[in-house]
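Trying the structure run again after the queue cleared.
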Amino acid sequence: MNGFRLLLPLAAVSLRRRWPAFVGSFVALALGVAVMSAAGVLLNTTMGEDSLPGAPSLHKLVGFMAAMAGFVSVFVVSSTFAFAVAQRRQETAMLRAVGATPRQVRALVLGEALVVALASAVSGCAIGLAVAPAIAAWLVDQGAAPTGFHAEPALLPLLLAASGGLVVALLGAYAASRRAGRVRPVEALDEVAVDKKVMPVIRWVAAILFLGVFGYTLQTFISMPASMLADPQSRDPDSTPQWALLFDVMAVLAVVLIAPVLVPPLVRLFTSLVPLLPGAAGLIARQNALAAIRRTVSTATPVFLVIGLAGSVVGGTVAFSDAMAAQGRAALKAGYVIEPSDGQEVPADALRGLSALPDARLTTATTVRFDGLSTPDQQPAPGRPTDLPIPEDGLAVDGDLRTAWNLTAEAGSLDDLHGRTVAVSGDMAKVFGWHVGDVLNARLADGTQEQLRLVVQVHHLLPHLPEIVVPREAVPGRSTVSVAYLGTGASPEQVTTALGGSAVRATTGTAWIGAHNDRTTKNSWIAMLAILGPALLYALIAIVNTMMMSTGDRLRDFATLRLTGGTRRQVLRVVAVETLLVVATAAALGLVVTLVTQYATVLLIGNRILDAAQPAAFDLPWATLAGSTAICLALALLSSLAPARLALRARPLDLATTRQ
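Done. Tokens:
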């Protein structure tokens, strides 16, 4: 007990004298808690909030935002705290040499981390409360949230964010303190200059675990079991890019965990041309990066997160957008899509005019709301739902659907879609255990009940069409027309003339698909910006923070270089080259993870969106990778060279005696 009491003054002195390192940890954790608390407040506000038609699910969007913010915060904060503790190995070794036990060393480090974490948690929650309204206003402006949506402060999400920050900080500090506390004093002193055993067994296990989760998640999304398909948004191709974030995150997480193994060979690779460079700056930077692997990994982690997440998410979003557009163009056979300008219905005189066009093939449809669709007698398989979980829109078609759309039947035939029949997507049939020939009880929104025979299961039914299609005669009383598909050799001018000035708009099939894809792409980018924006901004700030911490840790190295004859310019050159090595290593890891996630995205697109005859293109987002790398490099150079330049104004002897 006396030993612990003696360590308390040491902790107070350490907090006061080593404030630059603790300021870095404080900033990293405060920003992490701020991002998590802002996302948590918005998530709590969206409980029961309805999304706007055609917009992403607001609750799931904010849920993904909270999860991504927590994910990035965990790795940046834990890496920063581990780096801050690793900076103190010499001090820890001296404490062990004068009789401090491993338990006392851990108590000292954890006590300091607890004080910093408490201050960071309070500050982070305050920042999060200030930031959440701005994010809510942006969601409203982008059409992703209804008018009047705002952030409502709540205690629970703030407590969860603060608690999460405390846990992450203490775990990061504890893991690093154990490495210093469990060795003998002489071994600790020997480990001051060179990092050894930077990949403990637990890290290997975690890396392998997350690689397995990545593969399992990807396979699950490709096969889509009925338990997932039961959620209409899970089987909606428009929401697939958001769900694909899950395996993107798993891949990034796995690479972060094995970074200490990947960094040394990458540094050696990028410094293979060092002998060709003038001077010793390149060689010194190479040895610094290789000797202090923990420092290199800690400074490279936020850079990798920015490049890896940006490349993976942007590449996936673009690939999904291109695939949806290609599938839509291949599926729509109608030359024109006729829709009412006032949102009501297409008038009968306009339809008569269109029917009179040469070689006109007109298919009309109206939206029908189904409150239920189920088999009356057949018992579903265990674990399957028995009815629609929510009211769902269907389409009542008058005419031959095959003249409007090129659909692929998984079972049954579109030739039989007439009379009291129904067509559903193959995914919906899989969820409920329906088969061609089953008789389904259909409950319409107006209370009408019909019995319809399932005659065809259609591949996906596309995001442009509802998952339930019935002939017009199957739902009597539906006389309005909400959309018409026209196949004809007539010119756009002839089609406009045939409409006779009716309040409708005629759009060519290609333009209609393009407009739908533009709306889908806009929603995808809104979702991606909302999910990734706060996390990436936090990671960019963390780059500045960790680079400044790294520079502050090397004051004695600067003094040694100056005392052995190095000029200020040469020392700054060493710092710049080492920073370039860190960013280049992180960019290489970002490229690797983007390659993996983009390949996984192509597999998912090929199985969930495109037909087998339309393989997805494998393209990397080179512009995004280059742009994010350039931004990270500029921030890293600025945040490492600026404090180094200020430090080098002091005399070398003063730097050598500086407490670090």
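The two ends are 29 Å apart (CA to CA). Worth checking whether this holds up in the mutant runs.
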